[in-house]
Amino acid sequence: MLTVVDVERLVKDKKKLPCEAFFVDTNIIIDYKDPFGRSSFDFSLARRNATITEAIDKLKSAGVRPHSTITTAQEYYKHIQVGFYKLYVSKDIEESLGTAFDPEDFKTKRDSDVDFMAQWDLQMTQFKKTFSRNFPLLDLPANVHGLIDGFKGSSADFGDHALWHCALSAGIPCVFSNDSDFLSFYDLKYLMTTSRKVLDRAKDKGVEIV
Amino acid sequence: MKSISVVETMGTRELLSPDLGHRLYELIRDALRKNDSVHVDFATYEFLSSSFLNRSLGQISMDFDLDQERFDRRIQIVGLEKDDIDDVRLCVQNAVMRKKLLDKKIDLNQYYSTHLAH
User: Fold this and answer.
1) Segment B70-88, tens digit of pLDDT
2) Is B10 in CB contact (< 8 Å) with chain A?
3) Model ipTM?
4) Is the CB of residue B18 less than 8 Å away from at least one CB of chain A?
């Protein structure tokens, strides 16, 4: 039976999380790290960033372990790669709103553009820290066939499915996400969220909220 | 040189909210208008968010047109853990990128929503 944890309220009330560890979804990592500094002008993201940082850092201080998976790392890497490239090339073109990701140009710049290399190196330092210190990776489950066979494609993205599969395989049925798709994952025990939309949907579905 | 004790001035060891970041921004801005450089001491802080850094040091980088070299010359950061120093460097790097977009009259909200959505 799924229980949704209102993380903001949990931290505010200084309550204990009902599990010792949890997995984080990519959307939480993006809001926590804010890799392109969007929180400087996007007040909605700035509030989310502060709330999520407070929750995760205080839970860690209390001994709760946040984890991630290789699929989450891959999704986050792609987000950084595409976003960083687009931001970088935007300075050289007149009509930046039409910039598309060019994988070949990315490789060229990564290998020979000194300024690009220095900035990319800083992004990669942060990337490695994210999955070694902030949200340490746990191994993929041995049953990778089960991972593929169980994927339907109609109710959730593969990344979410893989995260759920890893969480259950690791014996940590608790995921921190602001994606309401996780409300439909059976066998997940706790869905932690800061999203009002997810909390409202959970209420509509009659899911217990703590 | 003007010195700012962040924890003492903010009245908390939890440097999380963007509003607190904006308060630090105002203090550094005022100090840089009167001095060549400012000493910013984070000693005894407990938590630090990206939004706090972006609304304080990131905004300062943009307003005073400070790339990393100029930033280091004018703002001396002490009392941060190494990981958080890397966060400051990324914050400055991102601010420099944002400044270039703004100089080209690009709407940041529209640009980020279109190209950096997740």
Assistant:
1) 999 999 999 999 999 999 9
2) no
3) 0.93
4) yes
